Amino acid sequence: MADRKILLLGSGYVAGPCVEYLSRRPENKITIGCRRIENAKALAAQFPGASAISVDVNNEQSIDEAVSQHDLVISLIPYIHHATVIKSAVKFKKNVVTTSYVSPAMLAYDEQAKSAGITVMNEIGLDPGIDHLYAVKTIDEVHKEGGKILSFLSFCGGLPAPEASNNPLGYKFSWSSRGVLLALRNNAKFYENGQVVDIPGPELMDSAKPLYIYPAFAFEGYANRDSTPYKERYNIPEAQTIIRGTLRYQGFPKFVKALVDIGFLDDSEQDYLKPEAQDVTWRSVLAKLIGVTDASADLEAAIKAKISEKDETEIQRILNGMKWLDLFSNKNVTKRGTYLDTLCATLEEKMAYEEGERDMIMLQHKFEVELADGTRQTRTSTLLEYGEPNGPSAMAKTVGIPCAIAVDLILDGVLKEKGVIAPMTPEINNPIMEALEKEGIQVIEAIL
Ligand SMILES: *[C@@H]1O[C@H](CO)[C@@H](O)[C@H](O)[C@H]1NC(C)=O
Question: Pathway involvement (predicted)?
């Protein structure tokens, strides 16, 4: 078979499983492009035949030069750069694959991509990605049977495996914690019983509810950004409830809510937290945040007064969690300019994955269905994946492998649709699901 030249931009944790999958076919010639060539070389060294180049994504000329020499570009760099990559791909008539949501800046290239005859496939990781595949599958099956989707609930979480959930958040950070924390104050919007429900960011954690998937897991879920476009995207105008959300272990939302109440998600610059400022202890930072001038005062009482949680058992759990993080201690903080970033430094230090610890992915769709004859049923689609100790994480595999599968299918001419697209039709999705199942990534479907 003729060589297929694939450019992969980025060398993050998802890149490994993606390159591993693609490098199984000798005709796939993979170039890894990073701003710092050492990063690209480190990844390329793990796969025979892969090579490394330096690409500066802030420089159009650098992108053009790299894109023009390949048949397809995988963009695993931060989403703000995708539109620049697509612009270059349109110019040189090359295909693109990303795992990110289609942004307006990316969609703006739809017509040009169609005229250039290229495929720009997006949203093909886990969430978005595998979630779309199995949502569209069931919705299509129900519609073909003449049925209706009354309600669609979908929750997904990337978590530590149960045995690694050993900290007050039941959560671990495998990369920057900043994005994770900022997402906790996003506004959310969804349909519930025919009404549009808006949750303002500061109330998002209060909106979390217990979620029962398997009895051995204590999950809570809260809505993730705007679910309302899925009425149209998934073609379910009949649905009265549409919620896409995030899963966390029990206790996470209330602990985070307390941190929010105290002011830890404040990202405004504080002179005294600048890296070059004088050393300062966690205890005095905490005192300042809650407005207590004397750091030797009873900070616990002041925190109780400040947080919205009123249940005494919960308050004790939260205070113990804060102690676990050393927030009452005389240890010096790692100053990063803002309260948010200074907290992040501590979270990343204390809540990182240890050697040999596994992560876990849980995804479940729950459909309330009414069949043509009026019968009601509940259908579920469930994915539970564990990472490999000292190997690829479940998150890296479930994002990187669907992405790699889409790349192969485009280059094989199986995925033919042109323009800026996402996995929203059975024609696009069926071959991807078939390949995923061969990889052992199996979504279990049930009718109750
Ligand atoms: C904290 O910083 C102060 C002032 O620089 C220093 O004297 C003290 O030893 C530091 N404490 C720790 C535990 O490192």
Answer: Amino-acid biosynthesis; L-lysine biosynthesis via AAA pathway; L-lysine from L-alpha-aminoadipate (fungal route): step 2/3
